[in-house]
Please model this.
Amino acid sequence: MSESPKKQTPTHQKPPVLGDVAKAAGVSVPTVSRVLTSSKYVAPSLRTRVLKAVNDLGYRPNVAARATRSGKRSMVAVLTGATSNYGYAQTIEGIERAARQAGMSIIIAVVESDAEEAVNAAIDLVLSQPVAGVVILEFDRPGLAAVQAFPRSIPMVVAGGGTPRSTRTTSALLDEHGAGKDATDHLLSLGHRTVHHIAVPTMGKQSGRTEGWKAALTAAGIPLPRILHATWEPSSGYSVGRKLAAQSDVTAVFCGNDDVAIGVIKAFVESGRRIPEDVSVVGFDDQPHVAMWRPALTTIRQDFQDLGSRAFGLLEKALDGNPKPPTASTVKPKLIIRGSTAAVGSIFSD
Model:
């Protein structure tokens, strides 16, 4: 008895995207964009390869660059690695408010990872819309990858912490290095012999927060304790905090963000150590709930909404044809002193 033929399941092929064209032509995504927008010179041989790939794949060119050249500047894109984390959400809100006041709207594309496929998918989504320009949040590896891959034919501004990675890129920044130094100097001024540090995830190098901590201790002639690492969540801070709580000589901890600091405080309290009488703890970000904590958390206040507003302002200047837009706008976050830090002498107040 012969087998009946298997039923063929129809396949639904996804429409080609910019990355597919680049791969087929053996060129980069920015090169494909330059060919399609005619924004910059491309060698004839490369142009021929790109156009052949466009025709072979049936790729429909995006409308983003055409909108920019025709002056239809009604939409700005935001490329981000996340939307729910505090800093990301607040920065996006700052961009949206500034855009709304300028009579523009925004679209948001999430870069799910720093893998080439994920980055190209997010960029293709943006370029399929009539966007005038883009703000990329460079808070993580996906954001950094998006900055590196995004075609320069579309006006772009980077929003993030640290220092500008390229003089060719306009950036709105938070001076995390200066703020990290301020946090550490504050703890040293209270008489602590050293400051332990719990770092949060970075983009392949130490963050400005960590570098600021190192600079403060080095300037004071204090050997650097081993850096501990956590994720962004309070549970991770709690796990690392339990290790620190087992060390009787730890009296000051500078945490990479507020959520980690909350977890650290919980670990010390459970171990019988008092905050701030026995251990002073500093966070970073100044999320709304930390002022309600007991004790209220000393932290670094980062104005993310202002960061978003500044980023949009820089983009708006570029869209208005400013021949020499500022290459960077940098603001140092502010140290907010509350109840989680105290002078070493208070240890003996009882």
Summary: The longest helix spans residues 86-101. Residues 1-12, 64-70 have pLDDT under 50 and may be disordered. The chain has twelve helices and twelve strands.
